[in-house]
Amino acid sequence: MQGMQSTEQIISKETLVDPSDELFVGLNRPNKRIDQKFHYNEYGSALFGKITALPEYYLTRTESLLLQRHSEEIAQYMGAGQMLIEHGAGNCGKVRHLLAPLQPQCYVPIDISAEFLFQSACHLQQDFSELYIHPIAGDITTSSQLPEHYRKLKKCVLYLGSSIANYPPEQAITILRQIHQLIAPSGGLLIGVDLQKDTSILQQAYNDEQGLVADFNLNALQHANELLDGNFDQDLFDHVAFYNEDKQRIEMHLQSSVDHEVELLGQTIPIRAGERIQTLQSYKYTVESFAALAQQAGLIPVKQWIDEQQLYSLQYFSS
Ligand code: AVI
Question: Which residues form the signal peptide (predicted)?
Fold first, then answer.
């Protein structure tokens, strides 16, 4: 294996920060919230994998289709022989569509889940034995760990899955600015962005018939119990997901069905019947509204690929 490091080597300090403080503070606010990242314990991550294959959840399969269909053209825009950095690489599955046409000199998958990332990178290395793979456990700010030997190459970032849309616009601009700094002066960003569409399609994607998204949402309470030595009872909450037209975003909440109390870190927190804990926001953009956001981060829109039903977009920006 060429660039692969041991799991210990790739665990950066970001993975060692205790997230419990943020979770506890969020649950003690008058408007309670659990940040979307707390959906992803082991069970939640596995469940999200199943959600991406649901008939109602069009995002993942439409993005895959666009990547497959346009991989040659994408490669023409991105150029060859670069350092290809994937933010939120997960199982390193999506990049497989692009590796042959792009022929990068090295691939740097970045993800906060160290163990899963390392395993995924190992699998990829088996199929692409000539590729230099350098996994980094952390986030896009962990650029100090980029492979020294390849630093002078043009840098292209992949940020797929419309994960950018889970951040409010101000935070999304900050992330895009960090990406811009990373790829400057001559790099590119290929990003997956979900589009505004008929509300009923959106409502179904986040309220699937099997109830997987509901389970995924309720699992945030289980994760909170694990992290805060808590006693949330999932049976006392309902999954609520709807499209907020004013804010142009899907919102997910957990709504308490009764007045009750929860213990977290030995502290008692009262919860009223009907009270909601906000757990996820998923903004929906037009090509123009996302380009305007990216431009605020210094990125220059170059090319967009959209499916026939105009459900989803892949957008390419230069620095
Ligand atoms: C990861 N992200 C783009 C998903 C979304 O559609 O906002 C998260 C999700 N959670 C439940 N369903 C989907």
Answer: none
CA–CA dist 110, 88 (Å, integer): 6
Of all atoms in ligand 1, which is nearest to the CA of residue 163? 3
Ligand 1 atom at shortest distance from the alpha carbon of 282: 7
Please indicate, yes or no, if residue 43 is contained in any of the structural domains.
Answer: no
pLDDT per position as a tens digit, 251-302: 999 999 999 999 999 999 999 999 999 999 999 999 999 999 999 999 999 9
Q: What is the ipTM of this complex?
A: 0.98
pTM of the predicted protein model: 0.92
Same domain, residue pair 274 and 301: no
* Rounded-to-integer distance, Cα 116 and Cα 131, Å: 19
Q: Which residue's CA is the nearest one to ligand 1's atom 5?
A: 282
Any residues with Cβ below 6 Å from ligand 1, and which?
A: 51, 59, 161-163, 165-166, 206, 213, 216, 280, 282
CA of 141 to the centre of ligand 1 (A): 22
Q: Residue 6 corresponds to which amino acid? A: S
